Structures are given as C-alpha cells and as structure tokens.
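Readers outside the structure-tokenisation community will struggle with the description of the input data as it stands. I therefore recommend that a typical entry be quoted early in the introduction. An entry of this sort, consisting of the sequence and the corresponding backbone structure tokens, reads as follows:
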Amino acid sequence: MPVETEQPVDSKPPEEQPSISDVLMAKLDAMTQSLEEAIGVEEEQEMIVARVAALSGTTLSVGFVAWAVRSSALLASCLTTLPAWKSFDPLPAVGSASKNVIGAGR
C-alpha cells in the first residue's frame, strides 16, 4: 500500500492569482502612460519646429533690412560722386534772370 506524505504546513498564506480585471487595468494604465509620453514627445517636436520657423523668419527679415540699407548706402555714395550740375544746366535759368533784370532797368 502506497503511503502519501503530508505536505508541511506553511505559515504563509497562499499567493493569490491576480484577477483578469486587475491584469487588464494594469495593461491599460501602462498603455495610457506610453500614450501620454508619446504625445509629450510630439508636442516637444512641434514646439521645436515652431521655434525654428520663427527664428528663420526673423533671420531672413533682418538680412533683408541689412541688404536694403547696404544697397541704399551704395546708391547714395554713387550719387554723391556725381556732380550736381551734370543733370541740371543752369545757363537757361541764369540767362532768363538776366533778361528780366535788364528789361526792368530800361
């Protein structure tokens, strides 16, 4: 006749198996956390893109203003080297003024 040995009595309570709802809630919590992290990363990327676009626009605007000032300064320096009387002939104005003075004196 076979003899069965008795299991020793432990003072520890038996481990409970987690229920299906506990496992489901833990998985849903993990998924929620990973989605929140993904959304945070996406928002950071959008913020970086917005900052880069703003900085690029500002740089281009400042560059255009500097270019316009430089080109207007070049144009002004070129115009100052030209003599003022080259485009204006003062002889007709002087001649008509002297005729009026001579005609008034007669």
Summary: The chain has two helices and no strands.
